[in-house]
Amino acid sequence: MSDATPNESFLQRHSRDVVERLIRQMEEGTGPFLKPWDARVDLGLPMNPTTGKNYRGGNLLHLWALQSTWDSQDNRWMTYKQAAAVGAQVRKGEKASVIEYWDWSPVEEAKKSGDPDLIAKAHPKVFFPRVFNAMQIDGLPALVLPPPRPEPDIHQACEAVLKGSGAEIHHDGGNQAFYRPMTDSIHLPRRNTFHSASGYYATALHELGHWTGFPTRLNRDQKGAFGSINYAKEELVAEVSSMLMGERLGIGHDPTQHAAYVKSWIQILRDDPRELFRAAAAAERVVEFLKVPELVREPLPKVEQERQPVAANQQELEKPNGTKARTKAREEAKQRSHVMVA
After folding, report:
1. Are 186 and 179 in contact (CB under 8 A)?
2. Cα separation, 173 vs 189, whole angstroms
3. Is residue 325 in some structural domain?
4. What is the pTM of this model?
5. Number of domains in the chain
6. What range defines the domain where residue 218 resides?
7. Mean pLDDT for the chain overall
């Protein structure tokens, strides 16, 4: 993790680190926002094998960017304790990656009380777990990718999401695909003009992501004109939701058709790194609203072990990049002070 600037909180520094990495990848033409992936053969989105579930929101984008940076051949991430619980061991000297976890229970409890003062004062709590990629861990079973789903099943699942939404979809868009908020309708080219059925569904689902922002649904700001910052923010939400749906439904994702927004996204994220996390959270709400089935794998079985002292190097291993060096410096300074006193 980079050094903090004056008056910068850990959350702000973490957000800046995540966004700076993604921006570098955008500028290099790599990473989640520019590199196409095929759900049939490529690694899936970052997931936790001890729970069987994908990471969510900004954590997903952060870990996905790290997989790309490291050219990792494994999409599994877990904490030191989770690795130990399944009989695996983080290798000595490996550096942890920081994710963030928000506990909203204080806010929910305040809402249940009905007390306006409590509600006004309630805030979520944020924690920063340290996780490791499976390539940093010994003793895990080999990664086994799920077999490709048959194309008819994939297309049937996509069709179910489109029809289940109740969205008004017209195939009269000529060579363009767009959502029109004024009429609350989606307009697409004719199906037979697409190179593949998966390409058609990817485009339709992207526009369906925009459709969810209507005031009577998820109520996002969609008043920005083409080329404006607000327009680019809405496109960022739709892009991330397309990534999530692409994996859940098995059609993959090709971000190149929206590469024109990259410069605007870079500007947005540089101005406010938290915008990435807000967009990712909004995208999660999109896929939940559309009831896109979540991928859940069988969790790794836990290994029964005798209670043993925590490994001496666990705390060191779980420190994010840069923390070890600062700790070592403090220890050396302490040793020097002892020598001076003696």
Report:
1. yes
2. 5
3. no
4. 0.83
5. 1
6. 10-76+143-289
7. 87
